[in-house]
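User: For a reading group we're discussing how well predicted structures match intuition. Take Phosphate acetyltransferase. Before you show the prediction, I'll give you the sequence so everyone sees exactly what went in.
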Amino acid sequence: MNKGIYIATLESHSGKSMISLGLMRTLLGKMMKVGYFRPIINDTLEDEKDNHIDTVLSYFNLNIPYEDTYAFTRSEVIHKRNEGKSGEIIDTIISKYKKLEEEFDFILVEGSDFSGEGSVFEFDVNTVIAKNLGIPVIIVVSGQSKTWEELLGSQQMAFQAFKNKEVQVIAMVSNKIQELNLESAKKNMRGILPEDVGVFAIPLIDTLNNPTLKEIVNALDGKVLFGHDFLDNQSGNFGVGAMQLRNYLTTLKNESLVITPGDRADIILGALQANISSNYPRISGIILTGGLTPEESILKLIEGLSDIVPIISVQDGTFNVTNKVGAIKSNIYADSIQKIQTTISTFERYVSFDSLVERLIDYKPHGITPRMFQYGLVQRARKSKKRIVLPEGTDERILTAAKRLIDMNLVELTLLGDVDVIKKTLAKIQLDLDFSKVNIIDPVKSPYFHEYAETFYELRKHKGVNMDMAKDRMSDVSYFGTMMIYKGHADGMVSGAAHTTQHTILPALQFIKTKPNVSVVSSVFFMCLEDRVSVFGDCAINPNPTAEELAEITISSAESAAAFGIEPKIAMLSYSSGTSGKGEDVDRVREATELVKQRRPDLKVEGPIQYDAAVDISVGKSKLPDSEVAGQANVLIFPDLNTGNNTYKAVQRETGALAIGPMLQGLNKPVNDLSRGCTVADIYNTVILTAIQAQGI
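Assistant: Thanks. Here is the predicted 3D structure of Phosphate acetyltransferase, as structure tokens, for the group to look at:
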């Protein structure tokens, strides 16, 4: 079930706060616990809170610690991007969102504000965040000061950007539209958007668009002389009182802000008198410029008036003050109760989200991103810590990965090897490994050595193995580690950094054995591409599988994909798509495809199919227009090891994709093989996969 919605915009002051407040009210009327999250907030002063967060938490009385409601400030994001740590940004955002997701029925996520340094790349950042959180989007675009062409162009660009990332846009809102143009705005949006996208138009509300006297005081760094209780007054107009009073009075408009030098007692008193006169409009406040204040006698006179508007003294001259007031954009603050209520009532009048809430809940994200996938792996491993043995305990890469795994508290590790050698290696690479948190075993010195040898002898004596041979095998770290699993002293094993694939797998085949109804051990790689995760099989084990073996590999790969949260759409790859190709190789793939369909009719499978038709939607639809897999495949089965191994390496090197694996399929207990050229990250990820396999997937 979907548990979130992302509110995004293209620009600053679009009015997305109205959508956030109104939608929060709607959601709280339908669900018990609704959370609020802002991935990126504006920089704030020390001890100052983000205004959006403060307003939502305060008004709706949400019980969320402030520090849990955001991930980064704008300057932190810019700093990390400059350091090349964009991935760390997304990882942290996912982690903080998922924490809220565990505590709340639904999360309202509000995108960034497009103000200040770094706003150029902000829209792309918001699309990436929404994609990685796996939630649909509401786009808010302001129509203020835009032509129809500019407004529709902005909306089309925004919609397409999210569509390209496979993020569903659930609604488009045109905000700050002139009242008489509301129907035209909705009609124009409907003309450029699919039917399943809700379209809404909201008029420009002057009382929301105009700044309050409090905002003006803050912007001008002013000093309030009178009228502290009326700082929520809104300034509808402003004008300079520089002419004679009799002429200035004729220029006053309702809710006017009077700007005048502080020594113009005539304008000050005249404006205050006009405010209480039934013959003139009410004013919102008075700004006294130039750092000047009226004489004491005038101040005493003002103090004695029964009806006083805010009177503010500022240091700047009249010209500068007038320009600054004109540039002030109104915001909604936690104590702006009247504005908040107006905002919510406006939302409820013009936006009907009741029809969309059900769709929000039923929404399923399209695919899974690499960051989502990796986050999910870590969380699953941590929930039920498993005992993993690493036979190559003296390898520098193994030790570095071990420290990371232990520090992350993901697994219980056993390292095999001579303790003194391990300590020397750690000293050489200057790695501080906490020995109290890792089990180190030298096989020949282990108290279990003879027991393991005896067990191996009993298991293999029918193959001519004697006791001396059994002891020799148990002195080998691969055999010893595998026997640990067999005897229940470990839950899984990862090896291969310094050994061949055969050296790693042979002991498992000899006494761990394959699962019932499985005749072939195979492997998959989880290929973490830019915005999706695909499963490649088999790229590591079987050189030339038969049609029967290929079908079995396919079913195992589909089950592995599903176990790791990927809904399998399977492409059986060949040099031909559909029925056109002829030849032994393509016929083998065709036969394997039919076997999969017979044994697992529930699976979505297409074959034979070429790689481009499998993953490119336009090519897929042109070659196989009726296929539910073509162009959307996420489980790709290669016809032989030569093709699979070279393809995964080509994709990895040319695209920068992260290849997690190989993960072996078909054994009774998890044993996974590393490449001898593996990196620390490869080891780290493979151990996590193994731990999850050991949980009984």
